[in-house]
Amino acid sequence: MENENSNNIKERVMETVQGMAGFMNLECQVNLKEEIDDRNNKSLLVSVYTPENASLLIGKNGQNLKALEQILRSIFLKKITDINNIVVDVNDYRKSQTNHLVDLAKQTVTRVRSTQKAEAMFPMSPYERRIVHMELASCPDITTESIGAEPNRRIVVKPL
Where is the R3H domain (predicted)? Predict the structure, then answer.
């Protein structure tokens, strides 16, 4: 029974996203996928594909995307007991941002290795900081630390 309820809620997530896009006169395709992260938390990945005006759903620096994600979490996370998080991606924007972030982190590591001086990166969201920490954890000669307070919290990359 709970699984059927979960499937009904997932269908409602899809309908909600399509409805919100419809208010902006956007046609979109929505795909849902469950994923388990390294901490054994289950996330619902909502992939939205729209042929035009994806920027309306993404917004400046992904602000609209984050807002859409927060709205979906507020509506549905209380109703789905086996899902810990809802992540929304529009036209693979989040995936390309992640790749860009990983590239910036690697460039920072290269500079830190050559100068042997710590370097602070730009302010990031908790999600972005986690990506950088996880990526740089594989560097045995580098350590990372988050400093500051939201919304200006950032990562400092240090040589060992």
Answer: 95-160
In this structure, the number of other CB atoms found within 10 A of the CB of residue 11 comes to 11
User: How many domains, the chain?
Assistant: 2
| Paired tokens of 20 | 């919100």
pLDDT (tens digit, 9 = 90+) per residue, 29-69?
A: 999 998 887 778 888 899 999 988 899 999 998 899 999 99
Regarding pTM above 0.85, the answer is no
- Residue 45: its H or E element: strand 42-49
Q: With CA atoms as reference, report the closest residue to 111 among 147, 139, 148.
A: 139
Q: Which domain holds residue 74?
A: 2-91
Query: Does residue 29 share a domain with residue 87?
Result: yes
| Same domain as 86, residue 44 | yes
* Three-state secondary-structure class, residue 125: coil
Altogether, the residues listed in the chain come to a count of 160
Mark whether 70 and 147 lie in a shared domain: no
Which of residues 91, 118, 140 is at a domain's end?
91
Q: Could you give the CA distance from residue 130 to residue 32 in angstroms, rounded to a whole number?
A: 23
